[in-house]
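WARN retry 2 of 3 for item q-0093 after timeout on previous attempt; input resubmitted unchanged.
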Amino acid sequence: YAVDTQRHALLESRAMCKWLISKGALSENPFEVVEGVGKRKKSKTQLTIDEARKFAEKCFAEEGHAATAALCCLLLAMRSGEIVGLTPRSIDDDGRLLRVFEAKTEAGVRLIEIPEVLRERLPALADATITRHFVNYHVRRLCKQAKVTVVCPHALRGTHASLATRAGA
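OK item q-0093 returned
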């Protein structure tokens, strides 16, 4: 098992035994002394600056929802689920702003300025019906075609954050 999978199973086992103790079925928790094995991964592999440029160029060279969705991950730091949830109503202020109405966290509900290079492409994506799997597949496909490290959509969000931090944001 992966380290995180093993540690999650250990936490579930501890919680179950804690419940059994509260019900009087156990006198002590045998999993309290068990320690997690292995080193947890802290972050996903991200694209370098050069790779991010190559990836973006490949996406801009391709028409369609797949490339636009991939660009949303990189340029707007959007999660796959947020991209899937786009509607025409999400695009506001004559195409200048993007509203994320529903997000994984409360802080994820936000207003994003749409870069000029995406303004014409976004309305078609907001009208489309896509899935998170669609976004994931095409991000990986576009990475391969751009001949860069193959990453998942969430890693592009991390790349965006790293580049923004480096630029002083």
